[in-house]
Amino acid sequence: MKMTLSRLRYKASLNKLGYEELPNGNTIDTNEKLFDFYFGYYKQSLSQSISSNAFDYLKDKVTVTTRHDDRFVTAMSDTNYTITLPNSKTYNVASINPDYEVNGYDTIVLSLVGGSSDTTNDSDSSTTSDSGFNSNGLS
Asked: DSSP for 26-72?
């Protein structure tokens, strides 16, 4: 994939689920920031979207590209890792196409935490997700 650093103009953070104990003994979930990274939205052509049979799959999904980091690969198999985008919504890594080359770029599909794609209810057939971005990740 041909990329330039100028396309990575948005800032997000990779988080890991943690726990905090309250004075009364209860625990609550917290997101502990591991690091910030720059990313760009990845645009798929219509034929790529159709060929992947992805209209339901892409509901509440955003596709981004960023510099390669092995922690993104780890985050795909561990739902304790989340990514917070500038729209302040939290996502899990649904899939990743890692590029292990020097100066490689990963293409990451993010799934909205608590979004309709995480449940079995398909009552909403809209192609625009709650994140404010369309199924290709562009506003």
From this structure: -EEEEEEEEEEEEEEEPPPPHHHHHHTT-TTTTTTEEEEEEE--HHH
Is 60 exceeded by the pLDDT of residue 138?
Answer: no
| Closest to 84 measured CA to CA, from 41, 20, 37, 52 | 37
**pTM of the full structure:** 0.64
The dihedrals phi and psi of 118, each to the nearest 5 degrees, come to -85, -10
The H or E element containing residue 111 is strand 105-112
* pLDDT tens digits, one per residue of 48-57: 554 455 555 5
User: 11 and 37 in contact (C-beta within 8 Å)?
Assistant: yes
* The token pair that represents 129 in the structure block: 């997700």
